[in-house]
Every structure is written in structure tokens, then in C-alpha cells.
Design brief:
This protein has 403 residues and is an alpha/beta fold. Helix content is 46%, strand content 14%. It binds 4'-deoxy-4'-aminopyridoxal-5'-phosphate. The site of 4'-deoxy-4'-aminopyridoxal-5'-phosphate has 13 residues, from helix 5. Pfam families: Aminotran_1_2 (PF00155).
């Protein structure tokens, strides 16, 4: 029956970690992984998370019953509050429908399915994604029946934002198209619009009658401050726009494998929000019935308890600071070696990744000669670096760019 089934290609990102694991060289580095690592290269479980887990296991009221289809209500309430802020008018007016999701990916998938079915019939099923973007975006929207188009985003010359290209592409998008925006810490480029550019994007969205779909996988990871990193989303919501929002607690709470996330739809009225939520449940029920409990219970406890919440924000700031310190360490080491070119973009880029502009052959050389594992698009995870390994990476870069 299955003889005709062809071998699927390995996932380009997961494949990097496999290659790193198989590498026996003691100097090997894994800069492909999209997960935070400590200075010693170890995964990090936050103290706030450990404490929430301890409280949960000691709580006699906790059990292993199913959650509702839409997830843990407290988790949904706190998640949207974290994103939209304590003074959100949309939340106060009850205009936001929120369901728990299987982390950010699940929120995107459920959101795309919902849009595919429930956008007005006259709207095109077209989504605009930045070029480049997180690889899974294309497949998620295509699987939900969307035509996928790209808008210009990264400018290889400046290693910054191609804002003119971006706005030109969005200005020609058919009305009703979905516009996917990374809320902060764009993956893979580490390049975000500035406040003024966000203002212009808001105008374009409104004028072009586009539907903004924010992917917020790194709230707090960019600046170390959850409120600052939510500025763009909040601005769109405060301007009275309808929007869709996918949230993940993978990075900012280190809950990767717990699959804690949320999907919110900001609507124009409480009545519409209730109907939207009822339809989101119809998307979820035949997919996986209801979401997992543990991660959402942890996140709800961390966000809901003032002491744990303060500890979490402090730990989050610590993670963001270490990543920024690694940017400085790499930049300094590159300067010391006199590596050709302007590398100041390493300092400017935001969040977990830096998009180096290294070519595919240069990346291949980093892997084969230097045992530095990365995706071949030149993206490096700053979280995979340490004070000890930054000079080694600089030495390797100096070598591959000069040979
Ligand atoms: N969106 C972006 C931009 C991401 O980088 C990621 C994680 N790599 C996700 C969504 C989804 O992550 P998760 O499903 O683990 O929350």
C-alpha cells in the first residue's frame, strides 16, 4: 500500500540540530536552534515556571480533566491582556474572541482555517507574507486554502528594512487581503519597522482595507519588556482596526514543548466576538477536540500571580539582555579581527536571530570546516552563542568571507 510513498525532505531547521548532534568535533556550535540557551549552551527552565509547576502539583483542586474546546478561560483572558495591554478598549468592550491554541503554530493554523471559511465571500483568499519569513507561514496558509503572496521586506544591501518596497507591495494588495505582520523580532531577519514606519503601515492597512494578522512569537524577547514589544499590536487595536493575533509562550516563557499559545480575533462588537468564538470552536473540535492543559495552567499561574509575574518579567529581561550582550560580543570580535564590511547590523537587528547575509557556500564552509551549524540562509541564533564561543564564530566568519 505504501510502496509509492516518496521520502519527504528533512525540515531545514530541525535538520541543523540533527547535524550538530552527529558532529563529534568538540568546538561544534549549534546556531540553528530557535530556542534560548544559557551561557553554558543549556536549555533554560525559568524559575517562575518551576514555581508555578510546584504550586500546581501541590494544589488539590488541580486535576487532569479535559479543558473546554476553547481552552483554559483564565489563560485566554490573561494572554489577550498581556498582548493588548491593561487599558485596551477592545478588551473592556468585550470585543475580543480568544481561544487557547497549540502554541503559536496552532494559533496561526486555526486562525487561517477560520479566515478561509469566514472571511466575507467577496474577499479574496490571499495572504501577504514578508520576504523572507518563518518558513512555516507559507505552508500553514496554503493548507488553509490561501493564495500566498510576498511583500518586500529585507534589504540585503543595508541588511535592514526595504520599507519603500514593502509599502509599494502593500499598496497594490487587493482589498480584503490578509496581511501577516511579525509583531516584533522578525524571524529570520531580526529587522523590525520603527515607530514611524508602523504608523505608515497602519494607514496603509486601513486605506487598503487589509486585515492585519499579527504573529507574536517573541513578546518580551526583543526589548526585554512585554509592553514595549506589544506596541505595534496595541497601536493597531487602539486605532479601532479589526485584527487577528497569534501568541506563543514558547520563547518568552520557555514553554516550547508545552505548546501554550492563544489566538485572538479583535472584532467590532461583543456580539460579533461571541459568534466568532463559537465558530473558532467549530474549527478546533474536529482537529484536536481540546488543547493540552499543563502549559496553559503554568502560563496562567505565572501571569496571574503578581509575585510570579514579576519574577517572570525579570527572567525574561535577563534572557533578552544576554542575547543583546552576545550581539555586542560578536560585533566586537569581528571588529578586532578587522573582518571586511560593515557589521553594525549585528547590533541593530532585534530578537533571537541575526541575518548575516553570508552566502550559501560561506554557510556550508562554516559547517564543514568550522563545525558551526546554521541554516544555509545565513541566519544565526544569537541565543546559541556564549562569551566563549563568540570569538570562535568571528574567527570562522573572518575565514569564510576572505576565502
Ligand atoms: N511564528 C514565528 C515567527 C516563529 O519564529 C515561531 C517559532 N519558531 C512560531 C511562530 C511558532 O512557534 P511555536 O509553535 O513553537 O509557538
Amino acid at each position: 500500500t505504501w510502496e509509492h510513498v516518496a521520502q519527504a525532505p528533512p525540515d531545514p531547521i530541525i535538520g541543523v540540530t540533527d547535524a550538530w548532534r552527529a558532529d563529534t568535533d568538540p568546538r561544534k556550535l549549534n546556531l540553528g536552534v530557535g530556542a534560548y540557551r544559557t551561557e553554558d549552551g543549556k536549555p533554560f527552565v525559568l524559575q517562575a515556571v518551576r514555581e508555578a509547576e510546584r504550586q500546581l502539583s501541590a494544589d488539590p483542586a488541580e486535576n487532569k480533566e479535559y479543558l473546554p474546546i476553547s481552552g483554559l478561560p483564565e489563560f485566554c483572558r490573561l494572554s489577550r491582556g498581556l498582548a493588548l495591554g491593561p487599558t485596551s478598549v477592545a478588551i473592556q468592550e468585550g470585543r475580543v474572541a480568544t481561544v487557547q491554541a497549540l502554541s503559536g503554530t496552532g494559533a496561526l493554523r486555526v486562525g487561517a482555517e477560520f479566515l478561509s471559511t469566514h472571511l466575507p465571500p467577496a474577499h479574496p483568499r490571499i495572504v501577504y507574507l514578508p520576504n523572507p519569513t518563518w518558513g512555516n507561514h507559507k505552508t500553514i496558509f496554503a493548507k488553509a486554502g490561501f493564495q500566498v503572496r510576498e511583500y518586500r521586506y529585507f534589504d540585503p544591501a543595508s541588511r535592514g528594512l526595504d520599507f519603500a518596497g514593502m509599502t509599494a507591495d502593500l499598496a497594490s494588495a487587493p482589498p480584503g487581503s490578509v496581511l501577516l505582520l511579525h509583531a516584533c523580532a522578525h524571524n529570520p531577519t531580526g529587522v523590525d519597522p520603527d515607530a514611524e514606519q508602523w504608523g505608515r503601515l497602519l494607514e496603509l492597512t486601513r486605506e487598503g482595507r487589509l486585515l492585519p494578522f499579527f504573529d507574536m512569537a517573541y513578546q518580551g524577547f526583543a526589548s526585554g519588556d512585554v509592553d514595549a514589544d506589544a506596541a505595534a499590536v496595541r497601536r493597531f487595536a487602539e486605532a479601532g482596526l479589526e485584527l487577528v493575533l497569534a501568541q506563543s509562550f514558547a520563547k518568552n516563557m520557555g514553554l516550547y514543548g508545552e505548546r501554550a499559545g492563544a489566538l485572538s480575533v479583535v472584532t467590532r462588537s461583543k456580539e460579533v466576538a461571541a459568534r466568532v468564538e463559537s465558530q473558532l470552536k467549530l474549527v478546533i473540535r474536529p482537529m484536536y477536540s481540546n488543547p493540552p492543559k499543563h502549559g496553559a495552567a503554568i502560563a496562567a499561574r505565572v501571569m496571574g500571580d503578581p509575585g510570579l509575574c514579576a519574577l517572570w518579567k525579570e527572567e525574561l529581561r535577563g534572557m533578552a539582555e544576554r542575547i543583546k550582550a552576545m550581539r555586542a560580543a560578536l560585533y566586537d570580535a569581528l571588529q578586532q579581527r578587522g573582518v571586511a564590511g560593515d557589521w553594525s547590523f549585528v547590533l541593530r537587528q532585534i530578537g533571537m536571530f541575526s541575518f548575516t547575509g553570508l552566502t550559501r557556500p560561506q554557510c556550508e564552509q562554516l559547517v564543514s570546516k568550522w563545525h558551526i551549524h546554521l541554516t544555509l540562509d545565513g541566519r544565526i541564533s544569537m541565543a546559541g552563542l556564549s562569551a566563549a564561543s563568540a570569538p570562535y564564530l568571528a574567527e570562522a566568519i573572518a575565514d569564510v568571507v576572505s576565502s
